[in-house]
Design brief:
- The complex is a heterodimer of chains A (about 240) and B (about 525).
- Chain A is of the alpha/beta class.
- Chain A folds into two domains: about 30-80, Alpha-Beta Plaits (2-Layer Sandwich); about 90-235, Rossmann fold.
- Chain A has six helices and twelve strands.
- The longest helix of chain A has 13 residues, at about 155-170.
- Chain B folds into two domains: about 1-160, 2-Layer Sandwich (Beta Polymerase, domain 2), CATH 3.30.460; about 220-525, Cytochrome-c3 Hydrogenase, chain B.
- In chain B, the strands form five sheets. In chain B, strands 1-2-5-4-3 form a five-stranded mixed sheet. A three-stranded antiparallel sheet of chain B has the order 8-9-10. A three-stranded antiparallel sheet of chain B has the order 13-14-15.
- By secondary structure, chain B is of the alpha+beta class.
- Chain B has 17 helices and 15 strands.
- Helix content of chain B is about 40%, strand content about 15%.
- Classes of the chains: A alpha/beta (about 240), B alpha+beta (about 525).
- At the A-B interface, helix 1, strand 7, helix 3 and helix 4 of A face helix 4, helix 5, helix 8 and helix 17 of B.
Chain lengths: ~240, ~525
């Protein structure tokens, strides 16, 4: 009986990445590099995490440190915000999974101090809108089955051991993804007495997905770039 | 915040005057502040609790070479806060009040662990926030001398030997976590059993301890508000509003009427989405995949709505001390009304169908029952409390912002089982949609931000987050930097109750009970 009810809304699933068209609100804009102006210089001053930096004749954005606080979007201090911003940034272009993983990737998610929002976005990936199973991406409960360790959160001291144990338990070859600005650089929590500055301090990271939290499509881009199905960009700065 | 009518604070002060010396009332009005000596603390607490007050939390501060303990209580039936203040010299041990007020239990354990301040008569101190395997004995990170960037002392490697409660032949203990299931927060549950039933559960949280209260110290209040949003990213608006209200009370500014109204709209939008998520998680735990998928698409509808109208799917960067960072126009207001109305209608249809689905009912009825007396004993807050007959809702009993001029209908049930929580969540979601629409249809005009100038002072801010009563104690310096920020979130209050509810349940009911409470671990770990 549920099956018929489930059909009533029709097909919601996006054809992403075949079509790059995105529904409004699915992936809100992010700050982008902007030619230097007075507003841009002021924006560097109001950025709480140092994600904006004056570099030559433009204001550069380090998305890995951006926590989406939107201070440089409204008011007098301003940089440009654009829809299509870079998402999946590859740290080590070599040794990425080969053809064998192009259509099947098993992911173990580990929470190392996330506020809950990034986990929710990961969960949304399995909702009918994104249905990542159609691309051969599966979240697996056991690290023994996992190809990718997807880490969220800045890595707290308490979660660190559990994280490393999970990594140890995974068979070779294995890859690590840091999802969310906290996982990328620790902001705005670490480094501190109880957190480190992101996953990169404790594990070799292959793909980072910045954002606080990165929307499902950005995380999907990260996974697809690992599978070699969308081109990934080099990490800036 | 002090312009609220005073109802029963007077009754509490009268009761306290029989126990305490005449000069112990430091401040009448709301919040009332009463000082007590170490010896009289338990009887004073008893007098307050007997007047129908609930514990908001315990705040520990270092002041004038001594410790200042602030026991914040709020009236559970009408407006009014009473703060009980104890000055302790270094080396003094306070009497544990958890025998009378069970919700003080975790506060005392936390203070003992992070400040190394003892509580006499508490049965279970030690390994709590700082896990024994990771941290050596004697580390007190919340003390003033401990630096924010202090390098972590080397791992102690002491094994954790939790107290075993079940001592029967063949009894065993099973660990769930810290990393478990598909996409879940990090925490461990030690379940003790003789076979099929869970006889005792020990939740072990704080794997995700980010030390928010510590790293906030010395930061600008406006930057700490960003931390408040990220405390629990799915209740960002509620915590940001609670924090902002504390900052506004210190600076004695009020947000403009339009900002107050819009704060209500976004807080209710967040509640609707959060309740949807909890319902989805509950339905998922019962193994019904189709309604799970239908519900998760509704969650996505609301996330996209937030992304469209506020530029952020979780409404970060919206609330500021003094109002809001963003105004919305007529098109956005219409979008909120239309999308949330549709999502709520769809939700209620699914809820209706689930209420007649035997497969669902068999798994949630009389499962994870929190009886009314036990809920009262634990001081449970939020929808979990309202499903166990406790009508405490800060929007009603301690109204703030635009809730002062609105009537919020509280959803109540008294069975206390997972199905009651499910029904309460659904009813509250519908009420949130109703409130949003009501406010958006009569939105006052004007600016959305009052300039907020920092100043020295202290205040308690509060809000009803989707998970329940959230309190933020704030002490600011003249320059507006945070000297002390104490977070008292609803999940921290409710976790101990969850542990007792699990007792007697079958193993396969554990995920269902966990999902029906919908608690956040990040929020509790801080």
């Amino acid at each position: 009986m549920w099956t018929t009810k489930g059909l009533t809304r029709g097909i919601l699933t996006t054809s992403y990445p075949k079509s790059r068209r995105q529904a409004p609100g699915a992936r809100p804009p992010r700050p982008v590099a902007t030619p230097t102006s007075q507003a841009g210089q002021a924006a560097v001053g109001v950025c709480p995490t140092g994600a904006l930096e004056l570099r030559g004749n433009h204001v550069a954005v380090d998305l890995g440190r951006c926590i989406d606080c939107q201070r440089c979007r409204r008011g007098d201090a301003k940089v440009e915000w654009a829809d299509e911003s870079q998402v999946a940034l590859r740290l080590s272009p070599a040794d990425l999974p080969g053809k064998a993983f192009r259509h099947s990737l098993h992911v173990r998610v580990v929470d190392a101090g996330d506020g809950g929002e990034t986990l929710r976005e990961l969960k949304q990936l399995t909702s009918p809108y994104y249905a990542v199973h159609r691309l051969g991406i599966f979240f697996t409960p056991t690290p023994r089955d996992a190809d990718v360790l997807l880490v969220v959160g800045p890595v707290t001291q308490g979660a660190r051991r559990a994280l490393l144990d999970t990594y140890e338990a995974m068979p070779e070859p294995k890859w690590v993804m840091a999802v969310g600005s906290a996982a990328v650089s620790g902001v705005p929590f670490g480094p501190s007495f109880t957190t480190v500055a992101g996953v990169g301090e404790v594990l070799p990271v292959d793909v980072v997905v910045p954002g606080d939290p990165p929307p499902p499509l950005a995380i999907l881009d990260g996974l697809l770039s690992l599978m070699g199905r969308v081109p990934a960009e080099e990490m800036l700065s | 915040m002090s312009d609220l009518p005073i109802t029963s604070n007077a009754a509490v002060l009268a009761a306290l005057s029989e126990i305490l010396p005449r000069d112990s009332v430091l401040r009448e009005g709301d919040p009332a502040e009463v000082e007590t000596s170490l010896e009289r603390l338990p009887s004073a607490v008893n007098a307050i609790v007997r007047n129908g007050y609930a514990l908001a939390g315990i705040v520990t501060e270092w002041e004038d070479a001594g410790w200042l303990y602030r026991y914040a209580f709020y009236c559970a039936s009408g407006p009014g806060f009473v703060h009980l203040i104890v000055h302790g010299k270094p080396g003094d041990a306070l009497a544990s009040i958890s025998p009378y007020v069970f919700s003080a239990d975790w506060h005392e354990r936390e203070i003992e662990d992070l400040f190394e301040l003892p509580f006499e008569g508490h049965p279970l101190l030690g390994d709590f926030v700082l896990h024994n395997e990771d941290w050596p004995e004697g580390v007190a990170p919340m003390r003033p001398g401990y630096g924010r960037d202090e390098p972590k002392p080397p791992r102690s490697g002491r094994p954790w030997r939790p107290q075993r409660f079940v001592r029967a032949p063949g009894a065993f203990s099973m660990s769930v976590g810290p990393i478990y299931s598909g996409i879940s927060e990090t925490a461990q549950f030690r379940l003790e059993s003789e076979g099929e039933q869970i006889l005792h559960a020990t939740p072990r949280l704080f794997y995700k301890f980010r030390g928010l209260e510590k790293i906030a110290e010395g930061q600008d209040a406006e930057d700490v508000l960003l931390l408040a949003e990220r405390l629990n990213g799915t209740s960002a608006v509620a915590h940001a509003v609670g924090f902002a209200q504390a900052a506004e009370a210190i600076a004695q500014v009020a947000p403009p009427p339009r900002a107050a109204a819009l704060r209500l709209v976004f807080a209710e939008l967040e509640r609707l989405r959060s309740h949807l998520c909890t319902i989805e998680d509950l339905v998922e735990s019962t193994g019904l995949q189709v309604p799970t998928a239908m519900l998760s698409s509704l969650v996505e509808d609301l996330l996209r709505l937030s992304g469209r109208v506020a530029g952020h799917r979780y409404l970060f960067g919206l609330v500021r001390a003094g109002g809001l960072a963003l105004d919305i126009g007529g098109a956005e207001a219409a979008d909120i009304i239309k999308t949330s109305r549709e999502a709520t209608a769809r939700l209620l249809r699914i809820v209706e169908q689930l209420a007649y689905d035997n497969g669902f009912l068999d798994r949630v009825e009389q499962v994870g029952t929190l009886p009314v007396p036990r809920a009262l004993h634990h001081g449970v807050v939020g929808p979990v409390g309202r499903a166990s007959g406790l009508g405490k809702d800060l929007r009603v009993i301690q109204p703030y912002g635009a809730y002062r001029d609105r009537e919020v209908r509280i959803a109540l049930a008294d069975e206390g089982d997972a199905f009651a929580r499910f029904r309460v969540l659904a009813a509250e979601a519908a009420e949130s949609q109703h409130l949003m629409e009501d406010v958006l249809n009569s939105l006052p005009a004007g600016p959305v931000l009052t300039p907020w100038r920092p100043g020295a002072g202290t205040a308690l801010g509060w809000s009803e987050s989707p998970l329940g009563a959230a309190f933020h104690w704030l002490r600011l310096s003249q320059a507006g930097t945070v000297l002390r920020w104490r977070i008292m979130p609803p999940s921290f209050t409710n976790w101990p109750a969850l542990a007792t509810v699990v007792e007697g349940a079958a193993f396969q009911d554990f995920p269902i009970i966990l999902a029906s409470f919908g608690l956040s671990i990040a929020e509790s770990d801080r």
